[in-house]
Design brief:
It contains 14 helices and no strands. The chain is mainly α. The chain is globular, with a radius of gyration of 19 Å.
Length: 241
């Protein structure tokens, strides 16, 4: 559901006033929360390597841990073993686990990374490039067949490679619901499609980063800093509390 026609259908029922509010929110967040690549492990690795496999690796490492820890684990893994399909498929699982220990869940992630290396090396000629060029729905589905790759991880990778999708982590989910940009009880797919419907396609890559930064600095899970929030006047959340 990602052709230009389908994306237009996502926006059809959204009032113009809501679209304007969403654009104003994004504009303010851009001004107040300048994005630093080192805050986002996947973005930093993409800029440094331009290698989808490396980006996928650090995104898997970032699951259930901070970006700082994920980057540390990624760098240790690269130094000790190497972050490429051949090196990982040949490596001992315990050696991978020791290298990525700082990222947590290291035994699970080690098994997944070794299996990932095997699949990409043996079934995809050692590269994710061809898969990323598939129609976005097909690429998204195929990515989710890989070890430790769910919807969010697939969307992170696709978004970095400028495919039309928006990744939704816990910060993006919370911020979008508090701002009234997605239904309060929506699941992952509903939130993703709501955001894709209200924002422009050329904004898809920046929305997750800005919402994540906002969630980390102001719209915190337990004690949101509503009185000093830069978009407080555009947000229905504080006025209900």
């Amino acid at each position: 559901m990602h052709s230009r026609k389908d994306l237009k259908q996502l926006t059809a029922r959204i009032p113009q006033s809501e679209r304007k509010r969403a654009q104003r929110i994004l504009q303010i967040l851009r001004e107040k929360l300048p994005i630093r690549p080192d805050e986002f492990s996947s973005v930093l690795v993409a800029r440094q390597s331009h290698d989808p496999f490396r980006v996928l690796t650090v995104t898997i490492l970032s699951q259930s841990c901070t970006d700082i820890a994920a980057l540390q684990a990624y760098r240790i893994l690269d130094e000790r073993i190497g972050v490429n399909p051949d090196k990982l498929r040949q490596a001992n699982t315990r050696a991978i686990a020791r290298a990525i220990r700082v990222a947590g869940l290291h035994h699970q992630k080690a098994k997944a990374l070794k299996r990932l290396g095997q699949i990409i090396a043996e079934q995809h000629s050692g590269s994710l490039e061809a898969m990323l060029r598939d129609p976005v729905d097909e690429a998204r589905s195929r990515l989710q067949e890989l070890p430790k790759v769910g919807p969010k991880t697939a969307d992170v990778l696709l978004g970095i490679w400028a495919r039309p999708t928006i990744s939704v982590d816990t910060h993006v989910d919370r911020v979008s619901k508090r701002l009234g940009l997605s239904p309060k009880k929506a699941g992952y797919e509903e939130v993703r499609k709501a955001l894709m419907g209200i924002f422009e396609r050329n904004q898809y890559s920046s929305v997750p980063m800005l919402f994540m930064a906002h969630g980390r600095r102001f719209c915190k899970a337990h004690r949101p800093l509503c009185p000093i929030c830069p978009v407080e006047q555009l947000c229905p959340y504080p006025h209900k509390n």
